[in-house]
Write a structure and sequence with these properties.
Two copies of one chain form a homodimer.
Chain A: H1 5-14, H2 22-35, H3 37-53, E1 55-56, E2 63-64, H4 75-79, E3 82-86, H5 89-98, E4 104-107, H6 125-134, E5 139-142, H7 148-163, E6 168-170, H8 186-194
Helix pairs in contact in A: 1-2, 2-3
Bound molecules: zinc ion (2 copies).
Chain lengths: ~200, ~200
C-alpha cells in the first residue's frame, strides 16, 4: 500500500481486535475514513482513556476507573448480604444485565489452574478471605464457569466460606432456556439431571 | 453498567465500527482490557493519526497523509501512460494488491447519481479533465463498479477522454475466477456473455 503508510498502519492496528482479520480491518478503516471520522476520533479517545484509566476495584477487583467500583461504593449493595464470586468482569456485566442480583461481587480474574502456575495467591484469595471475615454475609454465591477449573475453584472458595460459617450456593447449570435438549452437550445434560428440582 | 462508565463508553464507541454490535463491542473491550492494553493504546494512537492526518491526494484524490500520494509522487507510475479511474480508495488498494497495474489512478470518491445530487462537479471531474489534458496518456482504463451508476459514470468519463483523443477501455466483468456458473447472478452472467473473448 504505497499510497498511505498511515492507512496501512491503521489497518494493522485494527487487527488487535478479536475476530478482526485483514479484510475486516480494511473495511473498518475505509468506513471510518470515508463516512465516520468523528466516530473514529471518539473511539481513539475512549480507547486511550479506558486503556490508561481502567484498573481494578480495590474491593471486588472488577474493572473501574475509581478506587472502588460503583457497586462496591454503593452501601445498598452490601445490605443484601450476598456475595457473588465470578471469574471475570464480563461475568459481572452479564449478571448486572439480568437485574436480578442486588448484592456484591468478588472477581477472581481467572480460576485456579496449578499447571499454569495459578494458585490461590494469583487469584488474591487472601483478599477474599479478609472480605469474608469483614462483613456479615448471609450467603456466598459461586458463579464460576462450569468447567473443571471453575468447579475446582468453586470448591476451594466454598471451603473458605464455610470456615467463616457462611452459607454457600452454586448457580444452576443445565439446558439453556430456549435451547433444544438434543443439541446440548453431554456434560451440560449431566449437570442438568444432577441439578434437577422437585416440581411443587 | 454501574461499575465503570469508561468501560460503558468504550463499548459504545466501538460500535462505530461496521459490523460490530453490542455483543462484539463488549467482547472487544474486555479482550483489550484483560489481554492487550498495549494493542488498544496503539490502536488509539493510529486511529487519531489517521482520522486527523489522512486527506485526499491533490492529484488523484485517493487517501494520503501527504500532498501527493506515493503513487502520484512516483514518476515511474506516469511513464506507463495509463490512467485508471475508480470509485474509491479501496478500489485503488485492491488493484495495487494484484501488482499488475503500473500506471496512475483517478479516484472519483463515488459515482454520478443525479437523484442524490451527485453530478460531475461533486466528483471533481473538471480536475480529471485538466489531468487528461496535462499528460500524454496512452490509455484510460475505466474500473468503476458494474452497477447502473458505475456504468453511467464510466460512459460519461469515456466521452471526456475521447474529447482528448485518448484510447478508452473498461475492465472485464463476468463470472469470478473460481466461481461457479450456476450460482452467479443473471446480470453478471449477461456481462460475461456480452464480454466474451475469441479463443486463439
Ligand atoms: Zn468493586
Ligand atoms: Zn495520488
Amino acid at each position: 500500500m504505497e499510497f498511505s503508510p498511515l492507512l496501512r498502519e491503521l489497518i494493522q492496528a485494527l487487527r488487535c481486535l478479536p475476530g478482526v482479520g485483514g479484510k475486516s480491518a480494511t473495511r473498518m478503516a475505509f468506513h471510518l475514513l470515508e463516512r465516520d471520522r468523528e466516530g473514529g476520533l471518539k473511539l481513539a479517545g475512549q480507547l486511550k482513556a479506558a486503556m490508561e484509566g481502567i484498573q481494578h476495584c480495590q474491593d471486588c477487583r472488577t474493572f473501574t476507573e475509581e478506587e472502588k467500583c460503583g457497586i462496591c461504593a454503593n452501601p445498598r449493595r452490601l445490605e443484601a448480604g450476598q456475595l457473588c464470586v465470578v471469574e471475570t468482569p464480563g461475568d459481572v456485566m452479564a449478571i448486572e444485565q439480568t437485574g436480578l442480583f442486588a448484592g456484591r461481587y468478588f472477581v477472581l480474574m481467572g480460576h485456579l489452574s496449578p499447571l499454569d502456575g495459578i494458585g490461590p495467591a494469583e487469584l488474591d484469595l487472601d483478599k477474599l478471605d479478609v472480605l469474608l471475615g469483614r462483613e456479615p454475609w448471609g450467603e456466598l454465591i459461586l458463579a464460576t464457569n462450569p468447567t473443571v477449573e471453575g468447579d475446582a475453584t468453586a470448591h476451594y472458595v466454598a471451603q473458605m466460606a464455610r470456615r467463616h460459617h457462611i452459607k454457600v450456593s452454586r448457580i444452576a447449570h443445565g439446558v439453556p432456556v430456549g435451547g433444544e435438549l438434543e443439541f446440548v452437550d453431554g456434560t451440560t445434560l449431566s449437570h442438568s439431571f444432577s441439578g434437577r428440582q422437585p416440581l411443587v
